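Query structure, 96 tokens:
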């Protein structure tokens, strides 16, 4: 994951796509990312409905200190949430 991290002074920025299994659809995953890890989360795209083969996705931009982002990613991995990083943050059309 480190190859997808960008530093801006003390703030690190990371763009990720999370694939959320149906068993977590009613869980406040993004809210927990914000409150537990003191992150700013910008949702740049999302797909979560019955037509997604029982798996939804969120395109997110995470901002915060590197250790908090790393801890958050470990938390998501412990939930078996698939995480895909995206290195290009300048004007691309990356979305779910």
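Result returned for the query:
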């Amino acid at each position: 994951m480190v190859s997808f991290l960008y530093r801006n002074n003390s703030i690190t920025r990371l763009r990720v796509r999370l694939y959320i299994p149906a068993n977590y659809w009613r869980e406040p995953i993004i809210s927990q990312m914000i409150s537990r890890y003191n992150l700013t989360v910008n949702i740049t795209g999302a797909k979560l409905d019955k037509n997604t083969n029982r798996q939804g996705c969120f395109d997110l931009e995470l901002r915060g200190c590197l250790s908090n982002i790393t801890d958050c990613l470990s938390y998501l991995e412990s939930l078996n949430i698939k995480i895909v990083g995206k290195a290009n943050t300048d004007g691309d059309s990356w979305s779910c």
